[in-house]
Specification:
mainly alpha, 1 helix, rod-shaped
Length: 89
């Protein structure tokens, strides 16, 4: 094989390596961009989850307050009924 032919083959290999590296770099950059988008989506979902948990906790506190208030109203109504019944006897 002539030195020129050897050099021609070397050049083709170099060009192929450069092209392959550029394609690989493009793929890597695309994967990094996709990873960043996924991480941003995860952060947004985590915030959304925390918001839902806060809303749930607030709703539970409100429900507990209503339950307590209604329980107090019921107790007072029962006391009033008992007092009126005892006064009517």
């Amino acid at each position: 094989m002539t030195p020129e032919r050897k050099e021609e083959i070397r050049e083709k290999v170099r060009n192929h390596k450069i092209k392959t590296q550029m394609e690989s770099n493009g793929i890597i950059l695309s994967l990094l961009a996709a990873l960043e988008e996924a991480e941003q989506r995860i952060r947004k979902l985590e915030l959304y989850t925390k918001s839902l948990e806060f809303s749930r906790d607030s709703a539970q506190k409100m429900a507990d307050g209503i339950k307590r208030d209604k329980g107090l109203e019921l107790y007072e109504a029962q006391q009033t009924i008992a007092r009126l019944e005892s006064e009517g006897k």
